[in-house]
Amino acid sequence: xxxxxxxxxxxxxxxxGKSRKSDRFLAELRSCDRVVFLSxxxxxxxxxxxxLGLAHAVRTRLGKPCVxxxxxxxxxxxxxxxxxxxxxxxxxLTALEKRPGDAFVMVDSQPGTGRHTTDHxxxxxxxxxxxxxxxxxxxxRYTDIRPDFGATCTIVTRYLTEQATSIPAPLATALYYGIxxxxxxxxxxxxxxxxxxxxxLFPLANKDLLAQIRNAQLPQxxxxxxxxxxxxxxxxxxxxxxxxxxxxxxxQAAEIVDSLVRxxxxxxxACAGVYEGKVILSVRSAKxxxxxxxxxxxxxxxxxxxxxxxxxxxxxxxxxxxxxxAMAKLRVELLGRFQKVFQLRDETTRPLAFS
Length: 355
Ligand SMILES: [Mn+2]
Prior knowledge:
The chain has 355 residues and is of the alpha/beta class.
């Protein structure tokens, strides 16, 4: 593939040889007819940028067709704007027609973590991820899991620089935004590798597009959910917990908690929202090395799945009884579990507002 010019070509002093991860990744895909990219349910900018970047590497270096799939909904307005404006062509997983020569590559997630609507079984060739959450990697021929990186897009940016492929502006924009969103909040969960990737991508990115994505307009349901969240929020020691029933979109739990964790009276915020047959959990910490993923797993043990990073975590509980009584019980149960795992004093519990 010819380079398209110095401005779009990133070159790092990476040793050329068989030990380069990107070479080994591409070598595993050499014999397939088509590469199908998978990510976690409700794909976020990190998983979308990662699929787009790896597909670019596969198309330019191997000349093979690629399909980027979408598991579940993309409802967060910024993420919708990303998909529409870049644009990113996605095939709903439910519409995917598998072919015998397909190779499956999973990004930003691992098989068997409960973060997918389909169990992909043993069909996966490669997994590229940065989550600590242990997955079932048995039979996966190529794995590149780097929990020390802030974003999967950082790993993908490294692959592209190793391969010295051109990075078109829309791709640079998507990768940049993917990394930026993973590093949002304070303290930052970033490594020098993430900042190095951001520095490389920024000159190549379309800054107008970036601004449009960052400032995507919000629907009325966002404000309705926020109002419910504020109404239901309680603070116990320095832990804020809120309950939203119903959530209008599954990603609203994360959107709301990103805002609530900025409350100066708490170091932690947790949001539980009822969406269809599930309770979606999102947790944030304002402290470094907070072990959020680990602690949330402890909270939902026996109830559902959870995972994440040091300061950010998400989880999901499948519910069978949607009655108001069952929901009230689960709400109390969850607060009790948070209190136990985080060693909070129940007698300090008070409403955030509207007392
Ligand atoms: Mn990620």
